[in-house]
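Hey, I'm writing a tutorial for new members on how sequence and structure tokens pair up, and I'd like a real worked example in the thread rather than a made-up one. If someone can provide the structure for the chain below, I'll link this post from the tutorial.
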Amino acid sequence: MPNALPGIPVSPSLTEDTDLFYLLREFQTAYRYAPTGGSGPIRAHMRVVRERLAKILKAAPPVRPVEPAALPATNHLARAFDNGEREPTEIFARASAKLSPRLRWEYGYDRVPAGLARKYAYADVLGPAGFVDAADLVLGFVLFAPGSVYPSHRHDGITESYLVLSGAVSENDLGVFRPPSMIFNAAGTTHTIRTSSHEPALLAYAWTGTADAIAGHTMKFTRSRKK
């Protein structure tokens, strides 16, 4: 670590922040070995995530301080980690739990429906608002309390994937996903997420896109047109 000026703390590098470093290694491993179901687009997205993350890990950039914050949904976080440690995602869940006291949980929306405000939260790990800066890659977590419905939404210009770490979720009522399922949303596709009524769900996520698309992205729900 470089010498600090008196009274001015020096940010640790990524390799010195071992809890964060090993968590990002778990993201890298997951995006190498998670099942693709034979899908070419999913396989290509996973490769992009790995390649961009590998460059960041090799560069060992400084780690930024993030002020931790909790939301009502984080009351279910301990249970989500406990459940994750009984799944094939056990090592990923354990690494996530070690960093969890430092996470800043947010909504990301200017207006959050009252029912969702107690059941949903997300936390960035890497990206423009994460512990490590990245312009074209965002990694983080999404937490859902039991019985959540995450309304229809989309991400223009951003390819998104979720890796289920614990719990069970459905997307667009097309199937049920449990650990270590990978859920893929191509840029601009609309999706709705629902969770089991009895247990929380914890998902790791990755966004890939251009720096402009990620920097200019705004979180908003997709309203259906009235007939």
